[in-house]
Amino acid sequence: MLYLALVSLIWAFSYGLIKGELTGLDANLVACLRLAISLPIFLPFLRLKAVSMRGIAWLAIIGAVQYGLMYNLYIAAFGYLEAYQVATLTVTTPLFVTLLYDALEQRFRPRNLGLALLAAAGAAVIVFDGRALDATWTGIALVQLSNLCFAFGQVAYKRYREQETKLLDAQVFGLLYMGAVMLCLITTTAYGGWGDLGIISLRQWGVLLYLGVLASGLCFFWWNKGAVKTNPATLAVFNNVKIPLAVLVSLIIFGESANLLRLLIGGGIIALALWLATRAKATR
């Protein structure tokens, strides 16, 4: 759980970077560059002999969906939505996590779904500020598909590592980035994203470097490593822990305004869901 908490805190600092610095660039190119920066971090630890050919292919597919496709959809959504709209629409991720996990295990655990709904409700209290959502259907679809992709990757990787207990995460994680980069190379080429390569400013390269090394590199590794060590309910709830943390960071570090009452109520609901999830031994 420590890994999930650490990543949630780091991601809380990254919320505004995409909207503020990178939305003028092609979404496929941004996804490709930040993932390509992440890949070399894990290549020295890669041990292909420890993985079957089927395992190599499956891990590459997981990475292509969880990181490659997810990023393409998520970044593209900012072209249709305001940042607060994207934040509002991401609160459904815990629901996707628990429903996918149950579907893959061919069982239904209503308690896990209830906790995921509680986490989603808490996040909604924080991010929904009374403004009309007024989002385009295209933007809504892009964010929900992005949520689904990220949830799928977490669940698929967790189940794979639960079956392959002798492997170390560092030995195989490079395969996820390989799959993600390959997908993004295809989509960037298909949609002509390479044309934006020459207009990237030095400041934007700095943001991409930060996202690639920390937010998309180490944090994704720690997140999936943490997913393996927690029960499905805890994993689902943690997907929304970054939301109250992001508001706190904006309030304390960047001096932005925030509705403290909604933050306290929504954060309390998420904290309650997390406490109940960590006690749910029977839901593993």
Short note summarizing the structure:
75% of the residues lie in helices and 0% in strands. With 284 residues, the protein is mainly alpha-helical. The chain has one domain (2-283).
Task: Explain the layout of strands and helices.
Blueprint: H1 2-12, H2 15-22, H3 27-42, H4 53-77, H5 83-89, H6 93-105, H7 110-127, H8 137-163, H9 169-190, H10 202-229, H11 232-238, H12 242-252, H13 260-278
Task: Describe what you observe in this structure.
The protein has 284 residues and is mainly alpha-helical. The protein has one domain (2-283). Helix content is 75%, strand content 0%. The protein has 13 helices and no strands. Helix 6 packs antiparallel against helix 7, helix 6 crosses helix 8 and helix 11 packs antiparallel against helix 13. The model has no long low-confidence stretch (mean pLDDT 87).
Secondary structure category? mainly alpha
| Secondary-structure element order, N to C | HHHHHHHHHHHHH
Number of domains: 1
Kindly state the mean pLDDT as a whole number?
A: 87
Report helical residue fraction.
over 70%
Gap from first CA to last CA: 14 Å
Overall radius of gyration: 18 Å
**How would the global form be characterised?**
globular
Per DSSP E runs of 2 or more residues, the count of β-strands stands at 0
Number of helices: 13
